[in-house]
Every structure is written in C-alpha cells, then in structure tokens.
Amino acid sequence: MALGDLMASRFSQTSVPLVTNHCDDYASSRGEDAGDLASQRRDLETASSSYGNAAVATTSMAYLPQTIVLCELRHDAFEAPVPTGPSDNGLVSKWRPKDRMKTGYVALVLCLNISVDPPDVIKISPCARMECWIDPFSMAPQKALETIGKTLSVQYERWQPKARYKVQLDPTVDEVKKLCNTCRRYAKSERVLFHYNGHGVPKPTANGEIWLFNKSYTQYIPLPISDLDSWLKTPSIYVFDCSASGMIVNAFLELHDWNSSSSTGSVKDCILLAACEAHETLPQSAEFPADVFTSCTTPIKMALRWDAWDMAAEICLSQLPSLVENPNAEFQPSPFFTEQLMAFEIWLDHGSEEKKPPEQLPIVLQVLLSQCHRFKALVLLGRFLDMGSWAVDLALSVGIFPYVLKLLQTTTPELRQILVFIWTKILALDKSCQVDLVKDGGHAYFIRFLDSMEAYPEQRAMAAFVLAVIVDGHRRGQEACIEAGVVQVCLKHLQCSMPNDGQNEPLFLQWLCLCLGKLWEDFTEAQIIGLQADAPAIYVPLLSEPQPEVRASAVFALGTLLDVGGDACRDGVGGDDECDDDDKFRAEISIVRSLLSVVSDGSPLVRAEVAVALARFAFGHKQHLKSIAAAYWKPQSNSLLNSLPSLAHVKGTINQYMPHTSILSSQIGPLTRVGNDNQSVVRDGRVSTSSPLTSSGIMHGSPLSDDSSQHSDSGMLNDVLSAMGSSTIQDPNHFNAMYSQCVLAMCTLAKDPSPCIASLGRRVLSIIGIEQVVTKPVNPSSGSRRPAEPTSSPTPSLAGLARSSSWFDMNAGHLPLTFRTPPVSPPRPSYLTGMRRVYSLEFRPHLMNSPDSGLADPLLGSAGSSGVAERSLLPQSTIYNWSCGHFSKPLLTTADDAEEMLFKREGREKFAVEHIAKCQHSSISRLNNQIAGWDTKFETGTKAALLQPFSPIVIAADENERIKIWNYEDAVLLNGFDNHNFPDKGISKLCLVNELDDSLLLVASCDGSIRIWKDYALNGKQKLVTAFSSIQGHKPGVRSLSAVVDWQQQSGYLYASGEISSIMLWDLDKEQLLNSIPSSPDCSISALSASQVHGGQFAAGFVDGSVRLYDIRTPEMLVCAKRPHTRVERVVGIGFQPGLDSGKFVSASQAGDIEFLDIRNPRDTYLTINAHRGSLTALAVHRHAPIIASGSAKQIIKVFSLEGEVLGTIRYYSTFMAQTIGPVSCLTFHPYQVLLAAGAADACVSIYTDDNAQAR
Fold this sequence. Notes:
- With 1256 residues, the chain is an alpha+beta fold.
- The chain is 33% helix and 18% strand.
- The chain has 37 helices and 41 strands.
- It has a five-stranded parallel beta sheet, sandwiched between helices.
- α22 (505-520) packs parallel to α25 (548-560) and α28 (622-630) packs across α32 (732-750).
- It is elongated, with a radius of gyration of 39 Å.
- The two termini are 60 Å apart.
- One of its GO terms (biological process) is regulation of autophagy.
C-alpha cells in the first residue's frame, strides 16, 4: 500500500467519533457475559418506558453518551510550557557534517619487523600475510618494507591528494617525535593524520603505550599515548591497526578525563580509529590480508573478496548467454535490494526505539539510487521516520539528507506525496534544513504540491507546514517564497476552501494561515503584499470556524499583519512622505475590529493569540492608547468624578449592562471618558454636550446616560463598531472609539479565567502604561449575602451615580493594576461607607527622559528611543510552535493506549447498564442511613458537592473556590487545590465531563468563569485543561452575576445564564459560543438543568417562580413556559424526572414547594409537595431511580418518591452519637447508585443510602 493510501486510510478511520456504541460489540465478544448484558439492556428499556405515557422510540444507549470532548492535543495541559517548534541548533543538528577541516599532513608509521614475529602473538598456519595487498615474503625484507610503505602512501593519496605524506619504517622513538613535530609545524591549524601499523611489535599496554624499536633493533621501546598527543596536538586523526588497539583509545580518554585542564587541545578535535577492542586480536585467516582495517582504504578491492559479491557477479554473468541468444529476454536483477527492503519492512512491523536499530537503514539509502526500488524504499523510509524524532535523527545521521534533497529535482508524480511526508518529518525535527531547501530551490517543489488538487488535504497541509518552516525567521526563505507566489496560492485556497469538503480540511486551513503568518512576521514588504491582496477580509470568516486551531491560526496571521515599527506617523510626528500610509493604517484598524470579535472566544488557544496581536497593535499605537488609558486616572475639574477619587479603588460597585453579543466579559462596562481636552460636566447623571463623547457614539448606554436601563440587545459596543465602520479615516472620534474598545479588551484578557491568558493580558497592559502591582484585599466588614437578598442601594455620598462606577472598577475587577502617573488625592473615608471590599491601589510615577509633548501626561510624550527596550515586552505567539507538535507525533499509526481506553470504557458501560437497571427497579423505603461523613474544614461551608460514578470519591467546594477530593470508603483526602487566585467569586456548580472515560472536573464560578481540570484526584497533579468566561454581559443595576450552568454530555453543550436576559449555549468540542437563546428581559434565571438523555433539551427556573423548557433542536427553541409556583419566589432547583420521558420535570422554589410538571398536561402542575416552609435551599433529582431530595436552611433533608411519598427525613440532632447536619447548601445523587451526598453550611459533607447498606 502506498504511503498516501495508508495515510488516507488512517485518517478516514479517525474521522468517526472517538468512542462508538460499544455495548453491542461488547456483547458479541464476551461470550457467556453477552446474554446477561443484553438482558440487562432489555430490562432497562422496559423500565425506561414506564415513566411516561409518551411513545419514546429510543434505546438504553441514550443513558450512555458517546460524545467525548476536550481530549485533543490542545487540551494536554495548556497551562504547561508550550512545546517548542523545530529546532535549528543543539542535539538535533549533530547529524550535519561539521565544517570541513583540511588534512594537511599525513604521518605513516609502519612497525612490521618482517620475518620476526612479536613475542606475544601466536600465529596460526597458514595465516594472513598480505600488507597493503603485498606479500612481504615475496621479496627481500627491506625491499618489502619500502614497497609496503610506498603503497600505503598511494592508498591514502587517493582520498587526499593535496596532503603531504611522510613515511617512517620501523622507526625509533626519536624519529617518531621528530616526525610528529614536523607534521604539526607544517600543518599549522590543519588536521594531521597519524597512521600506526603495529603488526611487528607487541600489543599496546594497559597504560596506553605503543611499541617502537631501538636503533639496533634489539629492544622494543614503549611510547606513551600522552607523549604522542603532546607532539601532534590538535586537530588530529589517529589510525591504530594492531591487536588490542582499543587499549589506546581507553587510555586516551582517561588521559583527557584526568588532565583536561592541561591538555594542549580539546578531545573533541581528536578522532581515534581502532582496529579492534582492547581484548581482541586481529583476524589471522589466510583468506584476508593481515591489515584488514587498513584495507578499508581500498574498499572495492576488499569487497570483491567476499563470497556475497562473488555470488552476485556470478548471478549477473550467468544470464549473459540467454540474453545474447534471445533478444526478447529480460535481465533479472539481483534480489539483494528486494531482500533488504523486505527485511527492513519486517523490522518496521516489530521494531521500536527500545530495540536494536535496523541494520538495513544504510542500504535503504543506497536503494534510493535504484529507480525500480525507489518508491518502495521511500515508503518504508517514511514509515521509519514516523516512529519518532529518534528515528529521524538516526536516518539523518546515516546520510539521508543529500538523497532526499536531490529527489526534489525529480518530476515523478508518484513520489510527490511520500517526499512531502519525509520532508515534513525532517523539518519537524530540525529547522536548519530550511537553508538547504532554499539554496537548492526546493521551496518551489512544495508550493507546486500545495497548489495541486489531487493530494489529500492532510498532505497539502504538510506542504504548507514545510513552507512555514522555510520562511520561519529566514529572510532569504521569505523572499524566495514571495517570488514563487506563495501568498497568492495560500490566499486562493483559503478563499476557495469549503470547511466541509474533506475530513482533514481544518488542518489544511490551519497551516495555510500559519504559513502566511510566518511569511508576514516582521517582514514589512510581505505585509504590504498581504494587505494589497485583501488578506484581512479573507481571514475574517475563519475567525468563526468550528476548530479552535483554525481560529487561533487565523488570529496569528492577522496579528502578523500589524506593523510594530512605530507610531510616529499615527501621532502626527513624521512628515508627509513618512505618513503616506493611510491605506495600511485603515487596514490595521479593520484587523483590530476583527480581533475584538474573538477576544472572549471559548478557547484559550485563540485568546492567547488575540492577546499577542493586541500587543503588537498596542506597540504600534501606544501613544493614543496611553492617552485613552491615562484619561481615566487623570483628575478633572468640574466633574463629580474628580471629587470621588476613591471610586478608582473600590471593588464591588455596580456594573453596567453589556449585551451577550458583546466581545467583553460581564464585568467590563463602557468607557466614560476618552479625552482630556474638553471637560465633561456631570450633573444629575447627565453628560454635557460639550464632551467629545457625545459625538462619538460611545456614550450611548454609558453609566452616566439616561438610557442605560433601556439599552437594547444590539449593545453599546455594536453601536461603537458600526459608528467606526461609517466613519472616515480622518474622524478622530472613530479612533477614540476603537482605542477605547482595545483598552477594554486588554483588561478583559488581563482578568481571563486562564492564568496563562491573564498573564499575557497584563503584559499587554504594561505596553500602554498600566502595570501590575501587589494588592491585598481587605476582608469585607459584613458576612456574605444570601442569594435572594436584594442588592443594597448606593450610599448618599454617591448620589447621582447609582448606575455608574469608576473605569477601574468596571474594567479591572480583581486585576491589581496601576497607571504610571503621579498620585491622586487619597481616598476619603466617608466614600467607603457600605462598600464590600476595598483594594489598595498603588500609583507609581513614571519618569521619562523625553520632554513633555503637551499631551495629558508626560508618559504620553515618550519618544522612540526606548522602542527597542519596549519591544521586549511584546509577548510571543505560541500557536506555531504548538502546532508543529502535530507533525512530530506518529501520523500513520494509532495511539498505543487506544485499546486500553476502549477496554476501560467497555467495563464502565457494563457497570452503568447494570446499575441503571437496579436503580430503575429499586423499591426504596427509607434513605437516611449515613454511610460516611467528612468535615471538609471549609471556612465558608460547603457550596457544591459531586459523587464520582465509578469510584468511591466525593468532590466538594466552598465559597472561596477551594476544591477537595475525598475517598469516602477509605476516609482519605486525595487532593485539594484552589480553583483560581481570586477566591471571593464563589462556586456555582461542579460537573463531570466525559464521566464514562477519563473524567474531567468542570468548575463553574458565580461570575460565569469555567475551569476544567484533569487528574484532579491525584495529589498535586491537577492540570487545567481549558478555561473561559461563559457569560458575557449582565443587566443594569446588578451587583453580581450569580451564574447558573449545567453540562450536557449527550450533546457536548454547556448552558450558562444568570443576571442576563439570555442563555449562553457553548459547544465544548468546538470551544465556541453557538447561540444566545433569549430568556426573559425582566427576570433572571436562578436554576438550570440539562437533560442527560435528550441532547439539546434543558429546563430553566426563574427568580419570579416561572419555569421554561427549551429544546435547541426545534426552530422556536422554547417548548413551553409555565408558572407552577403560586408565590413569587425564586426557583432554587429544577431537574428532569428519571427515565426517557422528555416532557416531565420537577421544580422547587425557595418558598418550600416542589412542583411536578408535564408539558402535555394543560395544568401547570400535576403534583405538589410542600416540603419546607420558606427555607428550601437545594433540590436533587436522581438520574435513574424514582426519587428526589430537598434540603432547607433549617437543617432538614427530605427524600420523596415521584408519587410524593416521604422516603426519609434527616434532621439535626445535638446528641453526641447522632448524625448531624447544618443548614443544607447542596444536594447531589450518585448517577448510577442510590447514594445521596449533602453539603452543609457548617462545612460537613455526608453521604446517605438506604437501610440495607453498611455504615462506614
């Protein structure tokens, strides 16, 4: 099978869902267990249909969701250090030949002493005699010695004819010393080769001494290797052709280890070649010459003495008679290469990095020269390179590079795919090959392949990757690719590519973006070409692609089109010639508008690239952005804000409503000032028309305007963006609005739920003069407010600003920032009355070397002299290096752990099917047996709890977002960690993602922040998989968001709402906001529940006691709206009844009543349970068993059947041995067992079951 077909087969297999319905396969493959599992499934289906009157045509597999999310490469510890891209130095480049060093002098020392055998060598008879292919006994000894010396010199001269040669025959120590000194003197810094033949003297000693003669040839005289090294110095090559020559090598290494400081040269500049190991003697077979090692200088003559070559020659010659007699006869080539390829293929089937490297690899490279075997050799070579970086390094070390480089000059179509694959593997390891490719014109080969339509998208993505590496930081590569038209080719395919054309199209789009981004990076000429080709408009649709990698790559490419050279022209400093770039400036503004649309993207990968791009924009436009930011710390006269400087220090003031379509997070309100030339007079919450804000459109819906409460869903930001779109390039308000939104976006990123993104955001703010400082929150003076408690009204000191807050408070939130400007007046204590939390904000003066330019602050007059230093503040993009990791991994084989994961999944599905059937058939009389109790030691009580389905593990969290995991069978604390560093937001919900596989812990904060963790049960090993803000915008006059969320595994959707007039629908697989479903403009959602059986269906409870059922699969989405609760009290909990009936659900209000609803029943409810009197705090509905539970602030838990029967009551007792609970704060059922976990305000977590279970 060709490699291209193999790749197509492999990728077509991985395009299906990662986990399929395994129960049928499990039943068919498990023999006697199959009948039991099938029977359990039938029972489960029968039981399911008994809960509703509707004819539900579905199977038990609805209970076992097949969707798996957040398991891609990008989710493998995103917060960990980013993997590096292809390297251009270090270990991976050792395969390259070093700079060639000329061998200037060759010393040939022969110690043969013909006719006298050394005393320590016993020769066989007959034995090897030939030296340099001359029989020394065929002539007189002296003549033979001279002839052998002359022949050896000729053999070396074939390899290096320009060197000077000196021969010493049976020399003394003094003669060798003189020879070595002469060689080094004439060679100077060139290499000296020292050849030693010791066949006529004893073997080297253990001390590393070789033997020479005295003048009378009566004694053997030792010569230490240390003396020889001191004479020859470095660089040098030693060739030792004698028995036990390995002793010399060992002694040489020990010499340099012991005395490296006094060595005359580096051991790295010495090459030692020894004929055998220290314990070996030279071969004496008469079939070979005595100097087998030296005979390697005549390889052909030596090779022809092997029997294999004799056989090969005989096979060829034996065909001559038939070829002469029959002109139509065909020559049958030797099977040698075919056999070697077969052996290599067998090794590929069974070999690995841990096993011995394939002996056939050097031969495979030789096979590349044979046209008839070339294709198969390349395919096998590609399979070998796919085994890992070690295989690529090994192949490069044996000399693959010149072969595959030369093959790029061929036009054979069938070789194109495999050559692109091979080069992808090489460049994924070593970037330095980019120079060779450009030098030989190889880039044109990949551009042609990229532009061809015959290859699979995956293979064309490889070509785009190769081109991206070629232009990465390589100006000559960038210029060559531009000349070859790579910009036009890439943009053409970005325009024409349909996202659903192929299974691997996203990877192709991703690398087209990355290729152009690397081409434009810090290359002004290339940027101009991209802008002239209208590249920003082509990239805009890619920002809404479903794959986060494509969106992030598109953001990266757009960011590289932003020039960071300086903003002298933008500030009016340069002349007409310097500022004749209005088109480019307009294009940059357009690019930033596009980037602002994804500043709250669901993927950290995308938001990281947005931060990097905004940093580039901030660097190029820093003067205007600094003036915008400085305006909010600049005290103004005639303004009420001037008299309230403490507002800039206060945390917790009222936030302004931002619509769900806004790019900003919920805690960011509109800017109140964008300039400082005209003064804004604030009277009774109104802004005078003399302010520049009123003409720019930015004040629409601002905190100080009268229409903020009437703000439409189009949003202030949309008004700003539309105003910018209609403004001319000369309109200053156009820029003010854009720069203001950029500052807001930077603050959004600086408060990102992901620590990595937040760090990037703070670095961006530092570019415009806002720096992070150490701040410590002051503990609130009052206790935490109950969720139903209304927000307190503003103090009299803040009259007229009821719907306003300072810019810092709206945009900084928990972000400890300071603007580099002289300090303002100290805060007045009276203004702090009633504030929940105060931050100490430090202001630090920023000293400037340049004169004041007349702008609002001396900071804004900074000149370009510090541009180089400030450029170091620019954060670097990570998407390119991260994306390169895809091609470093095996592409032709599946993961080794896939079978293990499948086996684990099958076991859990079997467990789930068994226990679902038990739950549905269970008859529970009472549920008040406490089997475990755990004092979490949470200071603020337990806010949320969760039972893991397949392990005896309970997860709990408190108001400060401290998470603890506990094994309730062994009573062992497994792990504990903080969800984030700002612990006053509060936990809203805990959910398990991928519960049938390696589950992830989803933690939702009350501000709408979502953080998802892996390895959460391993002590200190938890890793953040992803994080994002699920709620964007909230209503006017709202102090906190009080977010409510729920996760639906069937669809892969996350539903989120709160103090907003919509429900945010997030696709966690795409990490993207799919839709914003309108809920109620007058009433907020207080409870959400997603169906775990029917994907796309969820129920919402509101603060006025009404409930609604939604199904996003229907055009209207809203299925029904009811008001089951007679009193206007908030819905505390809501959930779908057990079973497959999608029309029945349960709702509980704070008033204490629990209502059972059926959408087919014309009445609002068909059953009412008055569970508690005005104190209901929690509701739990079992996923499969016919029971529900409710808890109250009066320390009571009640368990009911679906018919309203009380199955258990758990009360607080003060006795020493009795079970005790505090005010109930959360309840949760085990998904597949009748277990109830209860969390209380006194930090205790208890687990209850029926009376038959044994207490632990």
